[in-house]
User: Fold these one by one.
Assistant:
Number 1:
Amino acid sequence: MPDLITVAVAYHSGYGHTARQARAAADGARSVSGVRAELHDVTSLTDGLWEGLSGAEAIIFGSPTYMGSQSAAFQAFAEASAKIWVDMGWRDKIAAGFTNSAGVNGDKLNTLTSMALLAAQHGMTWVTLGLPPGWLYSADGRDDDLNRLGGFLGAMAQSPSDAGPETAPSLADLRTAEHLGRRVAQTALRLASGRRALDGTAA
Ligand SMILES: Cc1cc2nc3c(=O)[nH]c(=O)nc-3n(C[C@H](O)[C@H](O)[C@H](O)COP(=O)(O)O)c2cc1C
């Protein structure tokens, strides 16, 4: 039995809503046999954070959308990752992203785009959501559809500004984040298996 591979979820959440999305993404990743998931709050830029991310096959980035982009805490993490970038330490890792905000649109796409660029600068391989758009995309769509917010680049979630994290984001948005975590884990597992095969170390 080959070693477990790790999917790390590197996220910030100011008030707990995006943290729920992060936990859903981690649950999705660890639902795949052969994969373990780690949650890393990027607010504290500790050695443990960098070591955890260094050991991961895949990193899923997560941030609320604040003022139309990733939060300042997440951006501080992104800038601090320049010390990894210098040696291309994350090159060829799998990457993906999720975001949550109060508006149905809320300019979430800009946050996901920033995360995809962060991954590109690190030479990582970006995994998309891989789901058709739900809900208002078709006349018989439902608000509990997977990918109800219709994103492609990553997982989107919406939390009303006056709802606490115990009630938001919706179950549909959490299941969408779970789907992303599972998809990233499956992709990372295929990559790790292929590498072992090429190295002649396949079990
Ligand atoms: C400083 C700030 C800026 C925000 N900017 C946006 C925004 O641009 N678009 C949006 O839809 N919601 C915006 N919101 C709402 C948050 O995205 C929303 O409350 C989200 O659920 C917070 O997630 P968190 O609990 O993980 O921090 C903003 C909230 C704050 C505090």
Note: The chain has a mean pLDDT of 97.
Number 2:
Amino acid sequence: MKRKPYIFITRKLPAGALEQLYHSFEVSMWESETESVPRDVLLKETQKADALLTMLSDKIDREVLEAGASLKVVANLAVGYDNIDLKTASERDIVVCNTPDVLTDTTADLAFALLMAAARRIVEAAEYVKEGEWKSWSPLLLAGHDIHHKTIGIVGMGKIGEALAKRATGFEMEILYHNRTRKPEAEEKLGAQYVSFDELIQRSDYIVCLTPLTAQTKGIFNGGSFKKMKNSAIFVNASRGPVVDEQALYEALVSGEISAAGLDVFETEPINADHPLLTLKNVVALPHIGSSSTETRMEMMDLCTYNIEAVLTGKQPKTPVEL
Ligand SMILES: NC(=O)C1=CN([C@@H]2O[C@H](COP(=O)(O)OP(=O)(O)OC[C@H]3O[C@@H](n4cnc5c(N)ncnc54)[C@H](OP(=O)(O)O)[C@@H]3O)[C@@H](O)[C@H]2O)C=CC1
Ligand SMILES: O=CC(=O)O
């Protein structure tokens, strides 16, 4: 009898999200919600897998892809796919899928929330109350920066960047953006202005990074870029940690070269609890939760399961990554 195709899922997901897979395939998953699958288990499971449903924290490199003699598809539960070696996938005719669109608004909500939290010192203020430090109302108590009518600069005006810009229009902000390619339709729709990277970082009160992590974007926010920003600038990163030189960011925040930062992503994740950035009051740090609403995460799981089933049954997946 022909064996059922085998799918390995690298993290414990709610069984309900996978129902459609259980009918036609053999499915197993790493039984932890919070800890990544160990490398040796991933390699062993991949040896017999026709499909992998992976997390952005799994390194799907040449070694993993070559271990999968019958591997046909890798569905990543994320829109970013910098954790996957696309070159090897292409050489081996392995389809790679991601989860664009379904997470756009949720991630833009979080990026704007991070911007607001850093600007208005929300986390610091909430801790101040809980720690019993609030003794009286005072005129400049925890005074932050205005958001309305300020200038936001979006580096990476893609789907999430545009959704963020739409939110910024509600605050009557001036919108600058920088991409490799200009987007006239976004300029018209959102009143956004295309500028060079340098002009964006010099003119913006809020600088938000929403690019993918690539060889070109790695380290684009470094000592030189922080020096060019206003001293009152607030830097928000909701893209990937390695776009930032964290040591340079720390120095810029301590020296007052920039005012504050809101960070959802870090060079190493999870970030070490004793990392210097986490000692600063002017840093709002989140554990990479950009797309983390229950509704959106369920949609992302549905999209991954759809894509896997499609590839394994000879149909077109909805969201293949261009290889
Ligand atoms: N914090 C979180 O939890 C989440 C983080 N993300 C991150 O956000 C990223 C963006 O997602 P999404 O908006 O859906 O993707 P899109 O592909 O729609 O947008 C990416 C944008 O980045 C621009 N870009 C690419 N390379 C460069 C470059 N070298 N310099 C300047 N701009 C560049 C692209 O424009 P062009 O090609 O013209 O340069 C494009 O407009 C993801 O790749 C992921 O890393 C996504 C979801 C959640
Ligand atoms: O970081 C999250 C993603 O979807 O990419």
Note: The longest strand covers residues 151-155.
